[in-house]
Amino acid sequence: MMRIHRLAALAAAVLTLLAAAPAGATGAIGTSCDGTTVTIGLEIFNDYDDPAWVGRPLYVRMSEVGTCADPVLLTDAGLVMPAQLMLATPTFQISAPRADTYYTYTLLLELPDGTLQPLLPGWHASGCGEAVAARGFLSGGSPFLTFLACGSACWDGVLGIIGQVDPGSLSAAELAPYVGTGIPVELHGTVPGPFPMPPSPDLTLTGIAAIPGGDCDAVDVEGSSWGGLKARYR
């Protein structure tokens, strides 16, 4: 299983950020998937002046990359705003809906009016099995390659429409057929943790290949257990 990105220095980083910002809250999220189980680890710091924020519900929005499926809201018994000036580190697990898919995870805070607001910088992504992180086109750049997502479907979840890609362990010879050639590719790789040191890429490659058939469209969601997961958590 890929190790969860834990933030050993989260408290110090949070306090540094909050020193120049209004009182509020900060959240970080780390995820991993071993092909069957997704482990979600959270670190939430409450700096709200008003004690009424204590115990406010928190959610994790889980989105499937490349299928255009509706996102799912996940929750857990311990997923609430901690006491003032306290750091909470809840962890929970769910069954992986698809064994070969990348997912993005966004930490959300429920406001008093019922709306959901991202709790920054609470975002992460991880793949299950031999998951494809993104589909699109690569061009040259320094120190990172430039990625442009397929425009016809839902492949911007991990890298955005335009992202930066670290070649990782891939050689120039392995990359040459795909960089700046206009060939649509699918990328495998890992994303950095929530507080990466700059300069930091959006994805570090572990593999690359031409898209089968050269098709940038979304993956067929038929046959997945996504619907079952939505029924369980929504």
Kindly state the mean pLDDT as a whole number?
82
Number of helices: 3
Number of strands: 13
What is the SS-derived class?
A: mainly beta
Strand order of the largest sheet: 9-10-11-13-12
**Main beta-sheet annotation:** 5 strands, mixed, barrel
Overall helicity: under 10%
Beta-strand content: 35-45%
- Give Rg in angstroms: 19 Å
Shape: elongated
| C-alpha end-to-end distance | 27 Å
Task: Outline the low-pLDDT stretches.
Answer: 1-22, 221-234
One letter per element, helices H and strands E, the order comes to HEEEEEEEEEEEHEEH
Please tell me about this protein's structure.
The chain has helices at 10-19, 172-175, 226-233; strands at 25-33, 37-46, 58-64, 72-74, 87-88, 91-95, 102-110, 116-127, 134-139, 145-149, 162-166, 185-190, 203-210. The strands form 3 sheets. It has a 5-stranded mixed β-barrel. Strands 1, 2, 5 and 6 form a 4-stranded antiparallel sheet that branches. 35% of the residues are buried. The chain has 3 helices and 13 strands, in the order αβββββββββββαββα. Residues 1-22 and 221-234 have low confidence and may be disordered. It is elongated and about 55 Å long. The longest helix has 10 residues, at 10-19. With 234 residues, the chain is mainly beta.
Keywords for this entry:
single chain, 234 residues, mainly beta, five-stranded mixed beta barrel, elongated, disordered N terminus, disordered C terminus
